[in-house]
Amino acid sequence: MTQVHDTKRRLLDTARELFYARSYEDVGVQEICQQAGVKKGSFYHFFPSKRDLTVAMLDDSWQQFQETLLAAAFAPDIPPLERIQRLLDMQYRHHSAVKEKTGHVFGCPFGNLAGEMSSRDEVIRARVKRIFSDLQAPIQNILEEAAAAGDLPELDSSATASAMVAYLEGLSLMAKTNNDPDVVRRLGPAMLSLAVPPA
Amino acid sequence: MTQVHDTKRRLLDTARELFYARSYEDVGVQEICQQAGVKKGSFYHFFPSKRDLTVAMLDDSWQQFQETLLAAAFAPDIPPLERIQRLLDMQYRHHSAVKEKTGHVFGCPFGNLAGEMSSRDEVIRARVKRIFSDLQAPIQNILEEAAAAGDLPELDSSATASAMVAYLEGLSLMAKTNNDPDVVRRLGPAMLSLAVPPA
Q1: ipTM, 2 dp
Q2: Which of A14, A57, A176, B20 has a beta carbon 3.0–4.6 Å from A107's, enabling a disulfide?
Q3: Residues A43 and A115 in one domain
Q4: From the list B120, B162, B189, which residue is nearest A187 (CB)?
């Protein structure tokens, strides 16, 4: 890794970590630079503003999430609906690991930013909106595969997948509010009962 | 209303309004005082800190929510499950009215604070946790009434009511992220399909 790439990577990783543990507004450029060991001038060489860093961090985090967790959860080695349960199991293990390490459930990094910033920053809002729609798409594919295999009643697969993304986000928020990963283990399977009938 | 009560009321209302439109961290005591037309010394007479104001504001907002919206939505003049749909209709109209006025969907005032503050402030987290559990209780009653009337399959009414609160919060977050109240109208009815079977 070149030094330039290494500096940028440290800024992205540090921003992700600090925003996730606290909030966007609570963390400033100065603190990000300090913790990443990067000079402020160097920060502004890579990112014109904290918002630009945040958008780059969202892109980067989402790509990592897709390539690791989502690819593993949705791999077609098990029947379609079991893949959704596997995603829930991973969500539970993630919250448990974070709580083990920090004492807190931090929730969903994308949902946290959406909740904090959507009414104040159209660029960040639009980016998280696209992430949620990128998560909805493979869930919709799974529902269609399950319906074709006769494992599901007839439903509006697009709307049901959107409902499932909303529920996933609601679960993460409840786990955070209760500081209890077990919320996901206990209430997660109900996600498979969500159904929007065809119009 | 005495002047003391009037000052306190203005501080509570202003804090609620500013936190809801933006965030906890983005709004300081000075700005709250300025907008409420209250001197800083007077603020600290009523509230030792911004956190104390926030807890009082949460109590006050939740009481108002219960006495107005929730009482109207859950009034027993219609069958139990229709009351849940009436709450969803109210949520939709609320987001629509706020968007009409401000251009934005602000989401759920309780969920916003929970998402922003739960990993950083145990007092605020505990207060919102109690609010969610106070919302879960009447939903559980409605589910039990519906089950007794034969309108529902056998289910774990407590866990299903918790799942419904999670879904409500997820819907508000999605409406905020999409800046579109229609998310609630389109996906809301699926809440009634959520079911956690008995253990």
Answers
A1: 0.97
A2: A176
A3: no
A4: B162
